[in-house]
User: Fold Leucine-rich repeat-containing N-terminal plant-type domain-containing protein from Cinchona calisaya.
Amino acid sequence: MVYFPIGNASLFIVHLVLVLLTIFLCFLGSASASAEEAAALFKWKASLSNPDNPLLTSWILRPNTTNSSNNISKEVVASPCSWSGVSCINGSVNGLDLTESNINGPIPLSFSNLNKLEGLSLNGNNLSGPIPPKIGKLTSLNLLDLGENYLSGSIPPSLGNLSNLSVLDLGGNQLLGSIPKELGNLMALRNNLSGSIPQELANLTKLVFMDMDGNQFSGHLPQGLCESGVLAFLSFEDNMLTGPIPRSLNNCSRLRHAYFNGNQFTGKLSEMFGGFYPKLNFVDLSNNNFYGELLAYWGRCPSLTTLRIAENHISGSIPPELGNLTELRVLNLSSNRLTGEIPIELGNLELYVLDLYSNRLTGEIPE
Ligand SMILES: *[C@@H]1O[C@H](CO)[C@@H](O)[C@H](O)[C@H]1NC(C)=O
Ligand SMILES: *[C@@H]1O[C@H](CO)[C@@H](O)[C@H](O)[C@H]1NC(C)=O
Ligand SMILES: *[C@@H]1O[C@H](CO)[C@@H](O)[C@H](O)[C@H]1NC(C)=O
Ligand SMILES: *[C@@H]1O[C@H](CO)[C@@H](O)[C@H](O)[C@H]1NC(C)=O
Ligand SMILES: *[C@@H]1O[C@H](CO)[C@@H](O)[C@H](O)[C@H]1NC(C)=O
Ligand SMILES: *[C@@H]1O[C@H](CO)[C@@H](O)[C@H](O)[C@H]1NC(C)=O
Ligand SMILES: *[C@@H]1O[C@H](CO)[C@@H](O)[C@H](O)[C@H]1NC(C)=O
Ligand SMILES: *[C@@H]1O[C@H](CO)[C@@H](O)[C@H](O)[C@H]1NC(C)=O
Ligand SMILES: *[C@@H]1O[C@H](CO)[C@@H](O)[C@H](O)[C@H]1NC(C)=O
Ligand SMILES: *[C@@H]1O[C@H](CO)[C@@H](O)[C@H](O)[C@H]1NC(C)=O
Ligand SMILES: *[C@@H]1O[C@H](CO)[C@@H](O)[C@H](O)[C@H]1NC(C)=O
Ligand SMILES: *[C@@H]1O[C@H](CO)[C@@H](O)[C@H](O)[C@H]1NC(C)=O
Assistant:
C-alpha cells in the first residue's frame, strides 16, 4: 500500500483494508475448518521457494491419530483457523492476510478450493508468475490484494466473475496487456497497461476505488465514469489520456480524492467539478491542457485540503471564495494565465503551500 504518493490517499486505503480485515479477524479461531481447506493451504506452503518461512511455522498438519503411517493430507486435526494469517467463519477459511510476509513463489492454484474466502491479501511479497485464471472461482471474494509483487502476464478475464469484489489491488506488478472488458470491479492497477479504459467500467456500480496510476492508458475516459455516484477515490495520474473529464463526475458526491495530473486532458475547467462534494479532500489536475476559469464553486468543498491545477491554461481571476476553504493547506495554481489581484481572503487560510508562480497576478501574497 505504500506506493500511493499522498499520505491521505494511502491512509484511506489502509483504513478501507483495515475495516475489511477487522471483519475477518472478528471471526478468527472458530471450530474446525474442513480438511480440504487445510490441505489446500498446506499444499501452497509446500510449493513456495521458502516453505520454511518463519511466519508460516504454525501452518502444520497434525495426523488425526498418532499413527505416523496415516495419510497426512487426508486426516487433519489441526484446524487452519489457528494458523497465522488465516481467519475463519463457522469453521471455514474466509480470510487470508499475509501482507509483507516474505512469501516467495507462485500464487496458489489450490486456492480454488477455498470457496468461502472473502479476503485474500498478499500485498508486498515476492509472488511471481501469472495470476491464475482459476482465481475467478473464488466467487465469495470481496477483497483481492496482490499489489507490490512481481506478477507478470496479463489480467485474467475470469476476475470478471468475482461479482462481490469491492477492493482489487494489482498495482506495483509487471502485468502487461489491456484491461479485460469482463473485469467487474477494479482497483489499483499501476503497471504497464495500455489501450483505452473500457466504457464498460461505467457499469461497475459497486466500485468505490479506481487507481490507474502510471500506466500508458490513452484515449478518453468513459463518459459514465461516476454514474453510480459511489466512487470515492479516482486516480489516473501519469498516463496519456486525452479529452474532457466526464460530466458524470458532477454526480460523484462521495468523491474524496481525484488525481488527473500528468495527462493531456483538455476541456473547460468551469464545466467540471460542478457538483456537491462534501468529502472532497484532494484534487490534482496539474500538467494538463485545461482552460477556462476557476469558478467560485470551488469554495463550496468544505473538506478540501489540497487543490493543484498547476501547468494548465487557466485564465480569469482567483475567486475570493477560496478563502472559505478552512481546511485548505496546499494551493498550487502555478504556470497558468491567471490575472487580477490575489484575493486578500486567502490570508484567512493556514496554507503550507501557496504557489502562484508564473501567472499575471498583481498584489501581495497575503500573510
Ligand atoms: C497405522 O495405519 C496403518 C495404515 O493406515 C495401519 O495398517 C496400521 O494398523 C495402523 N496402526 C495402528 C497402531 O493403528
Ligand atoms: C495420500 O493421498 C494422496 C492423494 O489423496 C495420494 O496421492 C498418496 O499416495 C497418499 N499417500 C499415502 C502414503 O497413502
Ligand atoms: C479423524 O479420522 C476419523 C477417521 O478417518 C474421522 O472419522 C474423524 O472425523 C477425524 N477427526 C477429525 C477431527 O478430523
Ligand atoms: C454460521 O452458521 C450458523 C448456523 O448454521 C448461521 O446461522 C450463521 O448465519 C452462520 N454465520 C455466518 C457468518 O455465516
Ligand atoms: C524473489 O523471487 C526471485 C525468484 O522468483 C528470487 O530470485 C529473489 O531472490 C526473491 N527475492 C527475495 C527478496 O526473496
Ligand atoms: C455476494 O454478497 C452478497 C451480500 O453480501 C451475498 O448475499 C452473496 O452470497 C455474495 N455472493 C457470493 C458469490 O459470495
Ligand atoms: C464465469 O463463470 C461462468 C460460469 O462458471 C463461466 O462459464 C465463464 O467462462 C466465466 N467467465 C470467465 C471470464 O472466466
Ligand atoms: C512497458 O511496455 C513497453 C511496450 O509495451 C516497453 O517498451 C517498456 O519498456 C515497458 N516499461 C516497463 C517499465 O516495463
Ligand atoms: C452496461 O450498461 C448498459 C446500460 O446501462 C448496457 O447497455 C450494457 O450492455 C452494459 N455493458 C456491460 C458490459 O455490461
Ligand atoms: C446523475 O444522477 C442522476 C440521478 O441519480 C441521473 O439522473 C443523471 O443522469 C446523472 N447524471 C450523470 C451525468 O451521470
Ligand atoms: C506546483 O506544481 C508544479 C507543477 O506540478 C510543480 O512543479 C511545483 O513544484 C509545485 N509547487 C510547489 C510549491 O510544490
Ligand atoms: C464565501 O466567500 C465569499 C467571498 O469571500 C463570501 O461572500 C461568502 O459569504 C462565503 N460563503 C460561505 C458559505 O461562507
